[in-house]
Amino acid sequence: MRLVSAAILASILTSTLTATMVLTPTATVAATSTGTHLVEFEKMTWVEVKTALAAGKTTALIYTGGVEQRGPQNANGGHNLMAYATVQAIAEKLGNAIFMPVLPFTPNNANAELPGTIGITNDLLAAILERITEQSITNGFKNVILMGDHGGGQPVVYQQVAAKLDGKYAAQGIHVYYCDEVYNPANDAFEAYLAEHGYPADLHGGISDTAEMLYLDKDNTWVRRSLLATAVGDPVVDGKAQIGPNSPHNGIEGDARRATRELGKRMFDLKVDYAVKQIRAFTQHP
Question: Which of 35, 110, 129, 228 is the most buried (most CB within 10 A)?
């Protein structure tokens, strides 16, 4: 009886394996990706990427972050935290986009007095952006959008790379754009809101950065909340940090003490909305 059962079991397994091996590529694709809203390139399989492209997700988002000191209260990788969340939200809201792995380094310079910055050069950024863009095009994307969370290299490097590659590929119906609205215009809109509501001006490591990081810091590892009460830096007057012999010079330009998660959400939503509007305008070709 045991021998009969084993034989039957072997027959069932053989039939199952045979059926699996003769699945068409289309069937395999459907099995892996049906009902899944995937927007993150590095967490997708090649099958899922190919299926998404065929379904119309032909816009690639290339977003840069950065590692730099941002005051005693904020972790050095804040730009990467914000970049990842922002580009993911942009891709989801667009509905036809996939975002590439966030580039964690941008033009900057380390400083032994405030050790927390790892920077690259403008030339290196340009080379990396160009390479990632062309690799995205080779994979099958028809629109590539360049964006950044850190000011290093903006706007010149991004503009130059986008113009160069758009000129190279436009005749093939492939386009490369620089989305600047996610950075300066969105930040300017938030600063206008702060001024209107009586908050102090800030530039780096102040209310804007700290509030957005608070909003995104789900596991309490990115912002040192115990230090918020003393998060005061060099004052900002007429858009410039006033650094003197008695100024804190602690990496904060502005005053972060009134930062809240609610303000952070406002900043985050502005960036996403500004970017989505501009990208849709770019990609709505006649």
Answer: 129
